[in-house]
Design a protein that fits this description.
Oligomer: single chain
Largest sheet: 5 strands, antiparallel
Number of domains: 1
Order of helices and strands: HHHEEEEEH
Shape: elongated
Number of helices: 4
């Protein structure tokens, strides 16, 4: 029994060989921070390029949607191509000539921006006689464009007109007319 008591009393004493743990040294922390900064320097440019490519793809897809919606509008309402981009949108449950419900409300509402791109729509050619129930007459032709808001969101612009082909401008400039749009290379 004495031997058990001696063992218990010896285990209560502090071990003088054991060091106090205080955490990481300053050098260890600096090395970890340096490694994190190196990884970030490698990853951030690739992330920005991926984001730019995604924005450009979304812009081309949205422009294709606007082009398709313009054709559907023309065949559905007998009012030519839509008078404005806003007439392709709509908030009601019933589609009308003035609110066709063919576009996402974000694209059809000013300032017409989505995914870092600004969208534009211009009726071209002569206006047609307004269809029944239409508040404004449509047009015989149109030009729709999209340009990047900044170089961070994208570097190229797109345009399309009534043939429905999407054209690309690698300078990011807006096409001023259907002829200027059609002179650009087609999106592959």
């Amino acid at each position: 029994m004495n031997q058990i008591m001696n063992t218990l009393s010896n285990s209560d004493k502090k071990n003088p060989e054991r060091q106090d743990c205080r955490g990481f040294s300053l050098i260890e922390l600096l090395i970890v921070v340096a490694i994190i900064l190196i990884i970030a320097a490698i990853a951030i440019p690739n992330l920005m390029k991926s984001r730019e490519a995604a924005n450009q793809s979304a812009a081309a897809a949205n422009l294709r949607t606007i082009t398709t919606a313009s054709l559907v509008y023309s065949t559905t309402w007998g009012n030519g191509y839509p008078p404005t981009l806003a007439s392709l949108g709509g908030t009601g449950t019933t589609a009308t000539c003035d609110e066709a419900n063919l576009l996402d409300p974000i694209l059809a509402t000013a300032p017409f921006t989505k995914s870092g791109y600004i969208y534009g729509y211009t009726g071209e050619g002569a206006s047609v006689t307004a269809g029944p129930g239409c508040g404004a007459p449509g047009f015989n032709a149109y030009l729709t464009t999209t340009i990047p808001q900044s170089t961070i969101t994208g570097a190229i612009s797109f345009c399309s007109d009534e043939p429905g082909t999407i054209h690309v401008d690698n300078t990011g400039a807006v096409a001023g007319s259907p002829g200027a749009c059609e002179a650009l290379p087609a999106l592959q």
